[in-house]
Amino acid sequence: MDLPYAEPYRIKMIEPIRRSSQAEREAWLARAKYNLFNLRSEEVYIDLLTDSGTGAMSSAQWAEIMLGDESYAGASSYYKLKETIADLTGLPFFLPAHQGRAAENVLFSALIGTGEEGRGKVVPGNSHFDTTKGHIESRHAHAVDCTIDEAFDTELDHPFKGNIDLGKLETVLKAHRREDIPLCLITVTCNSSGGQPVSLENIRATAALCRRYGIPVFLDAARFAENAWFIQQREASCAGMGIKDIVKAMFAEVDGCAMSSKKDGIVNIGGFTAYRGEELFRKAMGFNIMYEGYNTYGGMAGRDLGALSVGLREACEADYLAARIGQVAWLGQALVDAGVPVQRPFGGHAIFVDAKRFLPGVRKEEFVAQTLGVEVYREGGVRGVEIGAVLADRDPETRENRYPALELLRLAIPRRTYTNDHMAYVAATLIRVFERRKAITRGYRITWEAPILRHFTAEFAPLS
Length: 464
Known about the structure:
This protein is an alpha/beta fold. It is built from 16 helices and 14 strands. The strands form five sheets. Strands 2-8-7-6-5 form a five-stranded mixed β-sheet, sandwiched between helices.
């Protein structure tokens, strides 16, 4: 009999967490205006709001923290990171930024423009993430979703639900002038469709199609290593390839990337853009200096640059990826076994609960996934995040609410942070809510919202 598989690390330090009472949680929800972002961290028992910057760093990363070179220009920590990025991706030019949305700001300023320069432009891709869409729309451009239709059927077991539909993409490319399509963006893995991977075949086909039309292709590479693991496991032609070989093959097809390093960099802060061509790199450099800082630190401390140089390599280790993605799947299977509807197959960084199927009695106008998120926190102090109509925001022109095909509650698992006992508690909490789901028939209304990216700060009131 094979031995059971265990995590490829041991715990060296712990942080106490406190389990609250339901009465306490009721009071905290009211004070937070029913927006889970407004809760204080000590009011959360298991925090699955995000996997961004919430993971645990390794002893090697902490050692690198102590070696951080805080020189303003030319720090050795910068050159360690430059070498790592070039080695893993093959991209020779990079600019550090303090986090992913800052990296997007630099990249889109260089490619789409600033102010009114983006008006009339379109950026096709696979289910753009919320901040990505926000950066595009704040420039008066449009994000066009070209994800395959299979992504929007949570019961369908398709191996690469993050794939771009080449027919949809070509329709966009034919309908617009070359100068009105500044880039095509491939998000790996695709967060908004359920943490779903993109196949290497699809990356290659998308890049080839875009090259025919003269459109540059970039990766949103926040979870590039997890995407490579899925390619290795699910794409027959890549079964014999190593993770780093797959990573190199993914990046070989594109003109550059933007990355939130708080995901597959396994650090608490940081991001970067990387480029194949020097001309665009030099153009982006000006925006990086304006928005982030000098090119060899870009809003990051030297110690964080060093920790990232280690984290990027650790994220590509097969044992780490098997344990990380395996834990996510463990939670997913526990929910499926209890009849809880989730996006299948399970994603790389999170389990996405299908809120429409979970709460069929709540109307879409009452924010189904937001309602489910509140109920899960109320039940057991578990914090997830809504990926639905609140996050979809309003149409920038009509100002009407947008109702996406999927209403999802995302349970994002921080890296190397929780044990499977914690996952069992999360599953039990969801199952308890699922058992009383028929009694949940009303949702929430928005009482205040920001003009863009409203989900972070919106305030709600319950409907009765």
